[in-house]
Amino acid sequence: MITKNIPTGNQMISLPNIDETTAGIYDFTFLHMGYKGLIDVRGDETTPLIQPFIEIDNKKVAFKSLVWNRLSNWIPNFTLETDTIKLSATILAPIDERGFLVNLRITNCSDNTLKVNYGLYGRWASSLHCVNEDKVIQSKKYCYESPWNDSIVFDMRGPMPIFSFAPITDKKCITKFSDSCDSVDYSLTRFEELKPGEDCELTVYWGVGFEEVAAATSAKEMLRQGYEKELTKTLDWLNERSLMLRDKNLTRLYNTNLFFCIFFSTGITLDTEEFVSVTSRSPRYYVSAAYWDRDSLLWSFPAILDADKNLAHDMLMYVYDRQRKNFGVHSRYIDGTVLEPGFELDELMAPVIALERYVDTTGDISILEENNIRKGIEEILSKLKNHRHKDVALYETFLQPTDDMHVYRYITYDNMLVWKSLLAIAHLYPKYKDLEFTAGEVKEAILKHCVKEENGKRCFAWSVDLQGHYDIYDEPPGSLQLFPYYGFCKADDEIYENTVNIIRSPEYKYSFADSRFSEIGCPHAPHPWILSVANSLLCGRSKHCYDFLKNVKMDNYIACESVDEDTGECTTGAAFATCAGLLCHSIKEAKEGLDKIYE
Questions:
Q1: Which tens digits make up the pLDDT trace of 191-227?
Q2: String of DSSP letters for 553-576
Q3: In the prediction, which pLDDT does 599 show?
Q4: Residue-wise over 311-332: b if at least 16 C-beta within 10 A, else e?
Q5: Which terminal Cβ of the chain has fewer Cβ within 10 Å, N or C?
Q6: DSSP one-letter code for 128
Q7: 2 vs 585, more confident
């Protein structure tokens, strides 16, 4: 069992499970539009899909005490040192390539000539279809020699090819493979004789494609480019999008999570080469490879816009095209069809808020004339009308921001997003200028019907039924803490201050106020949420968040849903790519304050 995962990937291929202890690559994944989700190609619990190895004088070198680093905070690199050799290895998914590579470099540190066998071995044990749940694909595996790469090719086929992957090496290797019990075992071995101080190097390129030729030539393309060029190109791409903070640990946390957000919450499908957005391209996340308006547009989109405006543009075009038909529906497949039904008001508003954010950040008003964008705004307004109370300017929802069932239909946070979205549409499109008046009605209704008295102080209720019932509560996926961030009120507003004091007080069940890692949780995951840390940064609690982030472990320093209140280690929602986005955006927004704290 893997105790610590090191993920990496590019636009098309994800490596979600690299074992920090053994350097075994347990699987790779890719998105597939035809199958509406993620395909995961795996080894098994005993043998990874890909495992580097070294033998010195026919004795296997144990992979232990590996020292890991991330080049440009993303590309995994490790070293292994013994009395006789030093191994340096890099696992790279080059930018804009349909595959990945493993580079191994060995130095003879002894006084004797060494006979070195090294390379990769592994087992293709299963392939799974992943959308929330993982299901084994019941099709036959093939492995065979191919002239297209002078090596072996792996296929999965039904009546027609499903996918293929293939290695190619930059130096001659001995290749072996065998089938047994529906698994394929293989090895790629290079022999070298090293004098003292000499070194040797091998790069194995892995291409992925629809069938044999596509997979093999994807590997060959990377071979022709060469390891150094692929590495330099990728480092340049990463460095252009990186952010430097005064605290080097916070810099590492920010950039690693930024690239995890970019490469695990968006991607290119293998079969149709379409850009898509998802919760996570890692099957370790418990609702992987599906689409949520809220998750993609309120959480990952701000960070992607911070780092890459062209990518943010592509994201909006995908959302307003493929996903437009079912805006506001709980969750969907990557092709836009409904996965989980149920109306969510915050999700209906998310595309509007993202569009305004993009236009205000880039100045690109041409996007507003795109046919799908204009249709999307019209459809959002039409759907919104269907959820308005007949007498009061408040809008109902079926599910809360956690996707759990509502207590009362009129959620204060969601209606704040309606207010924000109506103003945004009026701001973006002059013909909707009258929506400013409607937004004013919504704000007035919130202040009249959603402000209640608790312990003698006026505060925002979480939700109301407009018949006198309400609840005092908060959820990290849609927190009342964010009202000043969205401009609904000032941070020193008395009602707002009272609200925050209540939900952060030790008396509030999910505040975790007296814990080492004190952030708000909720019944969906009754531990401190990383989204709540992001919320706190966005509403100005920089010192508190700095102390939290300085010590939190999360999912091996990758954002997760919640952490243990005493240890800071992941408790739920590992590999939460969209959450990584909001965490990064909040750090960037709070950069000035965080840098001052470090000083």
A1: 999 999 999 999 999 999 999 999 999 999 999 999 9
A2: -BBTTB--SEE-TTT-BEEE-SS-
A3: 74
A4: bbbbbbebbbbbbbebbbbbbb
A5: N
A6: E
A7: 585
Q: 414 — alpha (psi -120 to 50), left (phi > 0) or beta? A: alpha
User: In whole angstroms, what separates CA 323 from the centre of its chain?
Assistant: 19
CA 175 to chain centre: 36
CA distances to 304, 400, 497, 520 from 473, rounded to whole Å, are 30, 12, 15, 10
Residue % of the chain over a pLDDT of 70: 99
Separation between Cα atoms, residue 366 and residue 321, nearest integer Å: 16
Distance of CA 586 to the CA centre of its chain: 15
To the nearest 10 degrees (0 to 180), the angle between helices 248-265 and 577-589 is 140
Dihedrals phi, psi of 297, to nearest 5 degrees:
-95, -30
Q: pLDDT band for position 181 (50/70/90)?
A: confident
Per-residue pLDDT of 43-59, as tens digits, reads 999 999 999 999 999 89
Please give the Cα distance from 120 to 169 (Å, whole number).
Answer: 11
pLDDT at 235 over 70: yes
Q: What letter would DSSP give residue 169?
A: E
Nearest Cα neighbor of 367 from 327, 314, 326 is 314
Terminal C-alpha separation, the chain: 41
Which residue is listed with tokens 């296997």?
A: 60
| CA atoms of 536 and 594, how far apart (whole Å) | 13
Summarised one tens digit per residue, pLDDT across range 330-364 is 999 999 999 999 999 999 999 999 999 999 999 99
* Among the listed residues 81, 87, 120, 86, the one whose alpha carbon sits nearest the alpha carbon of residue 102: 120
Give the integer Cα–Cα distance in Å for 304 and 460. 31
Mean pLDDT of the chain: 97
What distances in angstroms separate CA 219 from CA 49, 101, 165, 539, one per listed residue? 17, 9, 9, 47
pLDDT of residue 2: 64
Helix 371-385, helix 309-321: angle, nearest 10: 60
Q: What is the SS3 assignment for 103?
A: strand
| Cβ neighbours around 69 below 10 Å, total | 12
Question: Alpha-carbon Rg of the chain, whole angstroms?
Answer: 26
* Angstrom distance (rounded) from CA 332 to CA 325: 10
Give residue 399's identity as a one-letter amino acid code: L
**213: Cα separation from own chain's centroid:** 31
Give pLDDT tens digits for 90-101. Answer: 999 999 999 999
Predicted model pTM:
0.97
Q: What is the spatial distance between Cα 98 and Cα 395, in angstroms, rounded to a whole number? A: 45
Instruction: Give the per-residue pLDDT at 180.
Output: 81
Give residue 4's pLDDT: 86
**Burial class of residue 381 in the structure, from the number of CB atoms within 10 Å of its CB (0-12 exposed, 13-18 middle, 19+ buried):** middle
Label residue 182 by pLDDT band (50, 70, 90). confident
For residue 357, give the amino acid letter. R
C-alpha to C-alpha distance for 145 and 24, rounded to whole angstroms: 24
Q: How many residues does the chain have?
A: 599
Judge contact between 332 and 318, C-beta under 8 A: no
Residue type, 429: Y
With vertex at residue 372, the alpha carbon angle to CA 371 and CA 378, rounded to the nearest 5 degrees, is: 95
Burial 135-156 (b: 16+ CB within 10 A, else e): eebeeebbbeebebbebbbbbb
